[in-house]
Write a structure and sequence with these properties.
This protein has helices spanning 18-31, 43-48, 96-105, 117-128, 153-174, 189-198, 212-224, 263-275, 295-313, 333-336, 348-355, and strands spanning 5-10, 35-39, 51-54, 110-115, 133-137, 177-182, 202-204, 230-235, 247-250, 258-260, 279-283, 319-324, 327-332. It is of the alpha/beta class. Strand 12 and strand 13 (327-332) form a beta hairpin. The model has no long low-confidence stretch (mean pLDDT 97). The protein binds 6-O-phosphono-beta-D-fructofuranose.
Length: 366
């Protein structure tokens, strides 16, 4: 295929590794003599026709840079556009035709979309409208099926694990319970893996409903055995046995309006009241999404970006680059969005956590 011009955008929540993908896509495209443009702020740039021309200089020195040089948005949805002056949360507009028009006006041969679940859903809708799209799976949550790992996850995991390490020494010194709240939405990957890597005592994840009594008894048993401190790692989406989750806010217009958060404070109060042990909450929040990507994420992002551009050159539209057994492969975007990847409560990682003495705050699982 004789391709001339490719567009690229980064959408949804930012994460370490976005720039590394942009760099790899652009370097591959420029080496093939193609023009590259980057739409600003995710799909918002496609709607508003805000873009930058990408040259070798644009992508020089960005491999290790956190965030995204293109900007991003987890609110701008061309199919339900709520941003002024075109739409409002009360009166969302379908501006997909405008986005399509802008795509055609630039005489683009393809668009590479880099994003998570929401971005993939929008990408699939544009594919159905005839836009030639290749997607790259991004999210610290690691909740996308059809790929072994999303980029950004390893960096978030490293940050959460370091936080647990640091909280250990202060918990130990003060004989306290420290509750660490991680991100992850409806999947417990960041909490579970960082708790295993950091030696957390209790880990609460959305996939295994917790019970306050089990947590309290576990901490009191530790105290009886001479362990005067405990580390609780709680995913922001942890669910209690009544099915309740801590919701911090709702964001009108976002593909998923619910923003989880607040579980660490709730648990801290409950644990201190019921055990008599002084407790503190530590919410890691957006620190998990900021800063330099780990070596693994730089490697993975570069492979993803290069593969996505190869897929464009091969005309593999409607597909997402995917990691399978440490090798790059491709899957249909429609298959990738069919279901979220969540922790298997009966799987190997949960069993391992139990066997090294951790508790999931559940009478059923342990
Ligand atoms: O999907 C990435 C993520 O960081 C989630 O882990 C978290 O629930 C959400 O985004 C936070 O979104 P916002 O940046 O809008 O607060």
């Amino acid at each position: 295929m004789n391709l001339r011009k490719v567009g690229i955008l980064t959408a949804g929540g930012d994460c370490p590794g976005l720039n590394a993908v942009v760099r790899a896509v652009s370097k591959n495209a420029l080496a093939h003599g193609m023009e590259v443009i980057g739409f600003k702020n995710g799909f918002d740039g496609l709607v508003r026709n805000e873009f930058v021309n990408i040259t070798k200089d644009t992508v020089s020195g960005i491999l290790t840079l956190g965030g995204t040089i293109l900007g991003t948005s987890n609110i701008a949805n061309p199919f339900k556009y709520t941003l002024p002056p075109f739409g409002t949360p009360e009166d969302p507009k379908d501006l997909s035709a405008v986005a399509l028009h802008n795509f055609k006006d630039h005489q683009l041969d393809a668009l590479i979309t880099i994003g998570g679940d929401g971005t993939l859903h929008m990408s699939q809708r544009f594919v159905e409208l005839g836009m030639p799209i290749v997607a790259v799976p991004k999210t610290i949550d690691n909740d996308l099926s059809s790929t072994d790992q999303t980029f950004g996850f390893d960096s978030a995991l490293a940050i959460a694990t370091e936080a647990i390490d640091r909280l250990h020494t202060t918990a130990q010194s003060h004989h306290r319970v420290m509750i660490v709240e991680t991100m992850g939405r409806y999947a417990g990957w960041i909490a579970l893996r960082s708790a295993i890597a950091g030696g957390g005592d209790v880990v609460l994840i959305p996939e295994i409903p917790y019970n306050d009594d089990v947590i309290v008894n576990y901490i009191l048993n530790r105290k009886r055995s001479g362990k005067m401190f405990s580390i609780v790692v709680a995913a922001e989406g942890a669910v209690n046995e009544k099915g309740e989750q801590a919701v911090a806010r709702t964001v009108a217009g976002s593909t998923d309006a619910i923003r989880l958060g607040g579980i660490a404070n709730l648990l801290s109060n409950m644990i201190e009241t019921r055990t008599g042990i002084e407790s503190r909450a530590c919410v890691l929040g957006h620190t998990q999404r900021g800063g330099t990507p780990t070596a693994f994420d730089r490697w993975l992002s570069t492979l993803y970006g290069d593969k996505a551009m190869d897929m464009v050159l091969e005309g593999k539209f409607g597909y997402m680059a995917s990691l399978h057994a440490m090798k790059m492969t491709e899957v249909k975007i429609s298959d990738a969005i069919a279901k979220l990847k969540r922790v298997d409560p009966h799987g190997e990682e949960v069993r391992t956590a139990l066997e090294v003495g951790m508790s999931f705050g559940s009478a059923e699982i342990g």
